[in-house]
Design brief:
heterodimer; A: 637 residues; alpha/beta; Flavocytochrome C3, Chain A, domain 1; Methane Monooxygenase Hydroxylase, Chain G, domain 1; 5-stranded parallel sheet; B: 265 residues; alpha+beta; Ubiquitin-like (UB roll); Fumarate Reductase Iron-sulfur Protein, Chain B, domain 2; 2 domains; 5-stranded mixed sheet; two-stranded antiparallel sheet; 9 helices; elongated
């Protein structure tokens, strides 16, 4: 198989305009004759469903929660990047493009990233017009702050709840279309299979989570915006319900899965406190604007932080990376924290933590200003840890947060299955091997508001859509596959709960395919995952029945998919014999411990194809070409 | 520590429910009450009993999924705290906690502690938005907004739609929720344009659902995990009264409750 990314020819500055002009249009009167399915209602899915509804398409939007407003985009805290250059500090579309390609450690596709930077300004315009209450200066203009991996202030924010406010903007636009009758919202439904007919995506099989009924939904195109797969690791900053099932079923129906090993570990999360822990809570990267990260210079120093004098503290990021200091990108900050904790400098009961200290900022700015900037984050920290971060430094440790990998898409966001489009975190396209802070919200909204409305039209205008009956053999086979799996999970009635398996799987992934990986460790992990998966299908117990609200059953299906996905993550990590961004292979590092890329052999997107339950996945490479930002050793020193 | 959870169990909306007592050992003070339910559910599953259904997702207090009444108080005893953020250190050895779902006619019980809050979505559908389509936006700094107005809007926009206000209100009124959206949008020039139409449409939908009326008791704001101020209700009432003088006849008709626009297949 060869992959055509459909990157427009000519200068990158004109690529998107050219692509838009070259795309075929659907005339306004014909739009209502086309039906579209959007799965997921977060920033990407919500904005896509709303925008497509506004254009006049017939849209069905699905989410597994009780309301589209619950999607996990809502938990994004710090902000959204845009190349507005309001602070007059040297920002431009080109710089945002450059920083994103470099931040991704030269493993992203240039043309996609350029488009992202290009439309970023329009996203802010759109959100302001929707009534998103971004932070403002006294003069009434929009306020900006800085984020990791950038030396300009390009981040727009709404207190520590930027994701919430942007999502509510998209949700309200979506509900407006529900009122207008162009979008049908179908909550509490989970997509369990993709229907592919004559090689094209034509619908989904969904399960009503309240009564267990399976239903078939046919459309002219299917848009997946179902988020990332970080929950494969069990403990992550993702919501409990976030899952990979939709993209995984699409993979098994023929969509290629790109760069699964590119997972992002966020440096500032509240450390694990016990075995019962169900998830990890993020403390926004924006805190690194004013917080200083340090560990005691003495190993295992038992003194409380306030009694450790200034000269006995190691502000290691400021020491090692003087030009970016505490605002180095996430992969760099995470690795440094892990390295110091591994050497015995960690703090807290478990020794798995470093300090994030605001005392200097409080002295400089006053507690009131700090409270205004980060008040809700400080409150959240205090509620969880019972410690007051205005008085005692926060303890933080890295945790799985975001997945750069995802279904392979071309420039039009179409997967290798024609008619299946993938948006937001669910695709792989824009962040390379490491995502910069405040760029996920930008990408989700760029895909949903400004890219898919054009590209899906091109697909609809250039294809014919014969009517599909529910009795169609492909439809029935999809339904049968789903039924069979549900029945199987309910019938095992073993001795272990779904969560106990998930926890164990997550531990394997974290230990062998987390912040540091080795070829040997990955081999071990693959063996362990296979053995555990085998036990799962013999010994799992799922409570209840298939015909009512049954979270145990929902989780069982998702965890079954995580087993297969986890193996692919490890295979991809083993296959990529280099370090880049969040993928750090211990064998490949510079003398001072930074990631060592191998551009000669690995400057490609690794796209994996499903070949059957017992066959190894097949690798197809999309070579990456850099015409504008020339790959160099990433340095933040 | 050890404590007892007395939980409302109800198989579905048609069947009768009842309280069931469950002793839980090994409660760690650091765990959240949802994690305490996780521990209980793991043991129930291994015993072959049905686990307790409860709504949850982000578990960091922002998605608005979780919430139930704990010892008579929505989201439990801590101020400005959702159930997922309520740690067990606020309880002590031997305590008995009564957990029951939001009790409101407009929020029918789905199962155990899970209720159907689609009435909230229908109120937003009626007018909780700015009528601007993708692509129509002017330059973001083209309309300046004073910091005070932006802050006031943000205070109201912090609502997470959890439903605690309705559960806490003796009348089961949705005035705080509706007022919060009216204040969020109405405080900004972008949302001011259609504030009258919005107030009429949203209040009409709120009245069409089976929510009670607001009698200014204030339990709602006390229970609100985001501390939405009571003033938002005053703002809603003012907008509504002003709008009533200019009543328009092109408003969308309220959707009857139950006959949801969101038809679940």
């Amino acid at each position: 198989m060869t992959l055509d990314a459909k990157i427009p020819s000519g200068p990158i500055e004109q690529a998107w305009a050219k692509a838009c002009f070259d795309m075929k249009l659907v005339n306004p009167a014909n739009k209502r004759k086309h039906s579209l399915i959007v799965v997921g209602s977060g920033l990407a899915g919500g904005s896509a469903a709303a925008s497509l509804g506004e254009l006049g398409y017939n849209v069905k939007c699905f989410c597994f929660q009780d309301s589209p407003r619950r999607a996990h985009s809502i938990a994004a805290q710090g902000g959204i990047n845009a190349a507005k250059n309001y602070p007059n500090d040297g920002e431009s579309v080109y710089r945002l493009f450059y920083d994103t390609v470099k931040g991704g450690d030269f493993r992203a596709r240039e043309a996609n990233v350029y488009r992202l930077a290009e439309v970023s300004g329009k996203i802010i315009d759109q959100c302001v017009a929707q009534g998103v209450p971004f932070a403002r200066e006294y003069g009434g203009s929009l306020s900006n702050r800085s984020f990791g991996g950038a030396q300009v202030s390009r981040t727009f924010y709404a207190r520590g709840q930027t994701g919430q406010q942007l999502l509510l903007g998209a949700y309200q636009a979506l509900e407006r279309q529900v009122q207008a009758g162009s979008v049908t919202m179908i909550p509490r439904h989970e997509m369990l299979d993709l229907i592919v007919i004559d090689g094209r995506a034509r619908g989904i099989v969904a399960r009503d989570l309240v009564n267990g009924k399976l239903s078939v939904h046919i459309a002219d195109a299917v848009i997946l915006a179902t988020g990332g797969y970080g929950n494969a690791y069990y403990l992550s900053t993702n919501a409990k319900g976030s899952n990979a099932t939709a993209i995984w079923r699409a993979y098994k129906r023929g969509a290629l899965f790109a760069n699964p090993c590119f997972t992002q570990i966020h440096p500032t999360c509240i450390p694990v406190s016990g075995d019962y822990q169900s998830k990890l809570t993020l403390m926004s990267e924006s805190l690194r604007n004013d917080g200083r990260i340090w560990v005691p210079k003495k190993k295992g120093d038992p003194r409380p932080p306030n009694q450790i004098p200034e000269e006995e503290r190691d502000y290691y990021l400021e020491r090692r990376y003087p030009s970016f200091g505490n605002l180095v990108p996430r992969d760099v900050a995470s690795r440094n924290a892990k390295a110091l904790c591994d050497e015995g400098y960690g703090v807290g009961k478990t020794g798995l933590g470093v300090y994030l200290d605001f005392s200097e900022a409080i002295n400089r700015l006053g507690e009131k200003t700090v409270r205004e900037r980060y008040g809700n984050l400080f409150d959240m920290y205090q509620r969880i840890t019972d410690e007051d971060p205005y008085k005692v430094p926060m303890r933080i440790y890295p945790a799985i947060h975001y997945t750069m990998g995802g279904l392979w898409v071309d420039y039009e966001l179409q997967s290798t299955i024609p008619g299946l489009f993938v948006l937001g975190e669910a695709n792989f396209s824009d962040h390379g091997a490491n995502r910069l802070g405040a760029s996920a919200l930008m990408q989700g909204l760029s895909d949903g508001y400004f890219v898919i409305p054009y590209t899906v039209g091109n697909y609809l205008a250039t294809n014919k859509f014969p009517k599909v009956e529910e009795s169609n053999a492909e439809v029935q086979s999809s339904v049968a596959v789903v039924k069979q799996k549900i029945d199987k999970l309910l019938s095992i009635k073993g001795k272990r709960t779904v969560d106990s398996f998930h926890r164990e799987l997550g531990k394997i992934l974290w230990d062998y395919c987390g912040m540091a990986r080795t070829a040997q460790g990955l081999e071990t992990a693959i063996g362990k995952i296979r053995a555990l998966r085998e036990e799962y299908w013999k010994n799992v117990t799922v409570a209840g029945t298939g015909d009512d609200l049954n979270e145990s059953l929902e989780k069982a299906g998702r965890v079954a998919d995580y087993f297969e996905l986890a193996e692919l993550i490890c295979i991809d990590a083993r296959d990529r014999n280099e370090s880049c961004g969040g993928h750090f292979r211990e064998e490949y590092q510079t003398p001072d411990g930074e990631a060592q890329r191998d551009d000669e052999h690995y400057s490609y997107v690794a796209a994996w194809g499903y070949k059957g339950p017992d066959a190894p996945p097949e690798l197809t490479k999309e070579p990456l070409e850099f015409h504008y930002v020339h790959p160099s050793q990433r340095s933040y020193k | 520590m050890k404590l007892t959870l007395k939980i409302w169990r109800q198989k579905n909306s048609n069947e009768q429910g009842a309280f069931v007592r469950y002793p839980v050992d090994d409660v760690d003070p650091e765990m959240s009450i949802l994690e305490c339910l996780d521990v209980l559910n793991e043991s129930l599953i291994l015993k072959g009993e049905a686990p307790v259904a409860f709504e949850h997702d982000c578990r960091e207090g922002i998605c608005g999924s979780c919430g139930f009444v704990i010892n008579g108080v929505a989201h439990g005893p801590e101020r400005a705290t959702t159930a997922c953020q309520l740690t067990m250190r606020h309880f002590k050895q031997g305590d008995e906690l009564t957990l029951e779902p939001w009790r409101a006619k407009a929020f029918p019980i789905v199962k155990d502690l899970v209720v159907d809050r689609r009435a909230f979505d229908r109120i937003i559908q009626a007018g909780g938005y700015v009528s601007v389509s993708t692509g129509q936006a002017p330059e973001a700094n083209g309309i300046l907004i004073g910091k005070e107005a932006a802050d006031c809007s943000m205070d109201a926009a912090a609502c997470i739609g959890c439903g605690a206000c309705v559960a806490a209100c003796p009348n089961a009124s949705a005035a705080l929720f509706t007022g919060a959206k009216i204040t969020h949008l109405g405080s900004l020039p972008q949302g001011d344009v259609e504030h009258q139409r919005r107030a009429l449409a949203m209040v009409a939908q709120m009245n069409a659902e089976i929510f009670g009326s607001c009698t200014n008791i204030g339990e709602c704001t006390g229970a609100c995990p985001k501390e939405i101020p009571l003033e938002v209700i005053a703002k809603m009432n003012r907008d509504y009264v002003c709008a009533s003088f200019n009543r328009r006849d092109d408003l969308p008709a309220p959707v009857p409750p139950g006959a949801s626009l969101a038809t679940g297949a």
